[in-house]
Amino acid sequence: AARVSGVVAALVTGDQRAIDRADWDIFRATGVAHLMSISGLHITMFAWGAAGLTGWVWRRSRRLCLALPAPSAALLGGLLLACAYSVLAGWGVPAQRTCLMLATVGLLRVSGARWPWPLVWMLACAAVVALDPWALLQPGFWLSFVAVGVLFATDSGAARADSAWAGGRFGSKLWHLLREQWVITCALAPLSLLLFGQLSVVGLVANLLAIPWVTLLLTPLALLGVLLPPAWAWAVQASDLLWWWLSLLATWPWASFSWPLPPLGWGLLAVGGGVLCALP
């Protein structure tokens, strides 16, 4: 019960102190430690849901739609609610970085600007570094921005056309999810070795289930429990199932391995090689 409550507390408030060190060892061995906190993924998910709700409410009023188009209102509403949620969750560095990235992209879209993705990506990086220069010394900064940049670079029309064979809308989405997870794993593996000296071999398999499970089921149930306490019981069951899956993967031989930190030059070459392997 203490283990489950620690995970739920981390997902709702960002407080990770209730998660035992043994649990962190399991999360790191399976490559899902990034999910066990108020991460950029959770805030983006919250912003997406808040934008959808704001847009639905906005479209119910003709006067509001005449004052501001519903898509713009949904974008701004999602951004403001995501920032408010981040403040209530402690306003940690990952939350600040994510809100700033969302604000940069959102303001560009509301203003009608249609910039190429490299400019949008570099502007978001510049905005984060301008407000927090010390972010350059944090591994999370490099992992998040490299991941976003790789996803931008590999999201080509050819890649979407290749997924057409997957058989319908569900098959296409499933193939797109598999492809994105493989690209992220391939591109970030050298960076993880450079920053932490550790790499999860089962991370690809673990994240294929853990990312949608935590993002679409566990975190919404944990947040819903703030308003409806019975939802926490469902969150406990979802957390137990996830823990069983991760514990099973962590017992595999060679689930993860450690490697001496390479020299910076070799590490940067390896990161560049990982990005090249992820490109179409």
Report on the structure:
It is built from 13 helices and two strands. It is mostly helical. Strands 1-2 form a two-stranded antiparallel sheet. The longest helix has 29 residues, at 168-196. The radius of gyration is 20 Å and the shape is globular. 29% of the residues are buried. Mean pLDDT is 78; it is low at 156-167.
* Oligomerization state: single chain
Give the total of beta strands: 2
Total number of helical segments?
13
Write the element-wise H/E pattern from the N-terminal end onward.
HHHHHHHHHHEHHEH
Amino- and carboxy-terminal Cα gap: 45 Å
- Name the structural class: mainly alpha
Q: Based on CA inertia axes, which overall geometry fits?
A: globular
Fraction of residues in H or I helices? over 70%
| Unreliably modeled segments | 156-167
Average pLDDT score: 78
Percent of residues in beta strands? under 5%
Give the strand order of the largest sheet, numbering strands 1, 2, ... along the chain: 1-2
How much is the radius of gyration in Å? 20 Å
Largest sheet: 2 strands, antiparallel
